[in-house]
Amino acid sequence: MNRAKDQFLATLSHELRTPLTPMLVHAQMLGRYSADPKLKRAGEVIERATRMQVQLIDDLLDISCIVTGKLKMEIEEVSLCAVAEAALEGVSALAEKKSVQIKTVLDQSIGTVSGDPTRLQQIVSNLLTNAVKFTPEGGRVTLALETVDGRARLTVSDSGQGIDPAFMPHIFNRFSQEDASNTRRHGGLGLGLAIVHHLVEAHGGTVKAESPGSGKGSTFSVTLPLKQVRGDELQGQSHSRPSKAISSDGSKVARTRAELRDLRVLVVDDDRGTCDAVASMLDQAGAKVRLAESAAAAMAAFEDFKPEVLVCDIAMPDEDGYTFIRKLRALGPSRGGDVPALALTALAAEEDRRASLEAGYQLHVTKPVDIDRLIGAIGEVLALMKTVRSQSTVAPTTGARA
């Protein structure tokens, strides 16, 4: 039964994520490129609603993994300052929409922690999103990071509606909401804080909530053990960005847009809506796009089109993306088998990411994907392949000639 439930959740995630990519991309295109103010507004509303659906899906899958003890983390040395800044970037648009001011007080000299950078960013993002959500227009949120008694303490405080003392004991319970009535003002499943609580404890930390009462704001404090490092190492590590935390880099995206002009991109996906959405996105950037709705059609197009980048789905009928990329890699560089490739897929588990990289893709990107994330991902695979190719052209040292 557990295996059946896991399979059901994986299938559910795939089927829910797949149609969200064309929704998100076309909504962004409406919001960015339409000259009609009403259409721009419509695009922005659809984009916001789509992102909310993605968050609900992610929360449901995370809480299921937590309950079954299957939530996986990849531990490395992480800068909390970088994590906080990356999370702030993701929440800034929501705060701006509500005219909520976010003030940051980050101690840049703070050390590093051992943790999963993506999950640590999720902790901060959930707390910030929650604070903005329950803060009225014109309110304020403060994000602070400091060292207290040899431990890192991250605090998110707001001037929002506060927490009723009677509800405080249940604040981190799953599906728990202070107002669960049909007339509640705020949506959601009541999972964000439960996920925060579990992730903080999984990192050896603690989290607590405080509030003077309803209408008086609230404060959430997370404490985490600092990694013990030598003083001469601390400064260099404290400013490094989390390796897996996703943040938007406008200048980097702009540079990649320039690289996309006249770049030949082969897009392979059995979902026509996704193909059309990705093609429209890349067309806007000036790329030359060829579409294929199966691995067989993609192989036929490969020889003729000679793509410079491959964007490929994984779960496809008859032949999946793993088999397809292995066939391409077997062609060798002389026939284009070293083409930079990214997997764009609704398979979102960590084992799916590992399988994509082992099969031959340079990057695994989970659906739904927005315009900037896909353009940035193409830039990443181009840079990775450029590095690999330059290294392969360096001849080994064989000693001096006679």
What does this protein look like?
The protein folds into 2 domains: 75-243, Heat Shock Protein 90 (2-Layer Sandwich), CATH 3.30.565.10; 250-392, Rossmann fold (3-Layer(aba) Sandwich). Helix 12 links the parallel strand 11 (341-345) and strand 12 (363-366). Helix 2 runs antiparallel to helix 3, helix 3 packs across helix 6 (192-202) and helix 5 (117-133) runs antiparallel to helix 6 (192-202). The N and C termini lie far apart (72 Å). The strands form 3 sheets. Strands 2-4-5-7-6 form a 5-stranded mixed beta sheet. A 5-stranded parallel beta sheet has the order 9-8-10-11-12, sandwiched between helices. A two-stranded antiparallel sheet has the order 1-3. It has helices at 2-17, 20-33, 37-68, 80-97, 117-133, 192-202, 231-238, 250-260, 272-284, 295-305, 321-331, 350-359, 371-392, and strands at 76-79, 101-106, 112-115, 140-148, 151-158, 206-210, 218-225, 264-268, 288-292, 309-312, 341-345, 363-366. The relative contact order is 0.11. The protein is globular and about 70 Å long. It has 402 residues and is an alpha/beta fold. 48% of the residues lie in helices and 17% in strands.
